[in-house]
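// run 5 | inverse folding | seed 20
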């Protein structure tokens, strides 16, 4: 059976730092950045690489649709 690996892409300029995705992530791989975007918000980013399982919990709870989750099969 193939294993699925995920990858997260956050549109940092649209993110308003609501922190909902950080709370929703079951693997605790998201955090708010110390830097701010052009609007002055701390944006969300993936802090732990190669751990995402592609569950899409973060993208589902994002009120602005800033998160895209990609899933890749790993043999």
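// decoded
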């Amino acid at each position: 059976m193939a294993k699925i690996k995920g990858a997260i892409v956050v549109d940092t300029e649209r993110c308003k730092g609501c922190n909902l995705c950080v709370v929703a992530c079951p693997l605790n791989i998201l955090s708010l950045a110390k830097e701010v975007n052009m609007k002055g918000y701390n944006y969300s980013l993936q802090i732990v690489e190669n751990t995402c399982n592609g569950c899409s919990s973060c993208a589902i709870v994002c009120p602005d649709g800033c998160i895209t989750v990609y899933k890749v099969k790993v043999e």
